[in-house]
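User: quick one - fold this with iron/sulfur cluster bound?
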Amino acid sequence: MEKYCDPFAKRYTEQVLWTITGRCNFRCRFCCVNTPDSALDEMTHLEAIQAIDRMAKCGVRSLKISGGEPFVREDFWSLVDYALEKGMKIDKIYTNGWLLMDSVLDQFEQRGMKPEFCVGFDGVEKHDWMRGIKGAEQAARNALIRCCLRGFPTSVEMNIHRGNTDVLRETVDVLADLGVRKIICHEVRNNDMWKHYAAGNEMSTKEYVEAVLRYIPEYYADGMRVVVRFEGVVDLYKGTGEYRVIDYKNEGKKGYLGWYIGPDGQIVSWKRITDDMENVWKEGYLEKVRETCEQAKKRFTTCSA
Ligand code: SF4
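Assistant: Sure. Structure tokens for the protein plus iron/sulfur cluster:
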């Protein structure tokens, strides 16, 4: 059949999020990929090369790379070079930051690359507890500083739970000082790991939205210093006072809109926000978020000239 018809010829998707390994040097309390024994493992080098070949044939031009921790893969640079050879860009890398040294940034620069680094950061003085590694917070901060100083775009993903809402304001402030461009906050996904290790810090979706409502006026009062997204709730835009309430009815049910390839090579799709969000919105929270943003905007962005 392939002799007469190229099965990839008419396929096209521009971007793929690829988890290149299920291995990691961290032991996060909520991890759904690595887990303590790296249950999902990773593709062999040959399988990964073949995956790149297939992606190239399907028209993929942009990769977002995640893990596990991507930099624990010994053949990381060989895979990057092969993807570049096939005409792809590496647009974004998700990392815990521990291995993101200047020597790694040198390697990217030598290849003429400036990908965005998205570093996990779960709150000032709360991060080590969440990540299971002493020094994880300092490592993440150092990685972000290195990237910012060298002109690499940076973002942060922050898991919100009962134990870190009290440092949300301080955390956004610290990350803005470091030069982070965007912070994406979301509920901790309630998987078996988190249920086991949360130590009372599990949070319902309603509690999460209420924590966001408490924080919104503080964001405006502090000068709207960095773009912050609260997944499933609201986008807050730097400097302007503008915001966008995320309307569950229109867009909350959407899954990840590209392809996601897991560490074992399976193509996976997932919803960005939890099922409980629909019930929370039905209780009128969409309007509460809008009102809170409007009031804060009026109070903290009125021109005094
Ligand atoms: S850094 Fe990521 S992959 Fe590693 S254990 Fe934590 S959540 Fe899992």
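One thing worth noting: Residues 24, 26-28, 31, 33-34, 67-69, 96, 120 surround iron/sulfur cluster (CB under 6 Å).
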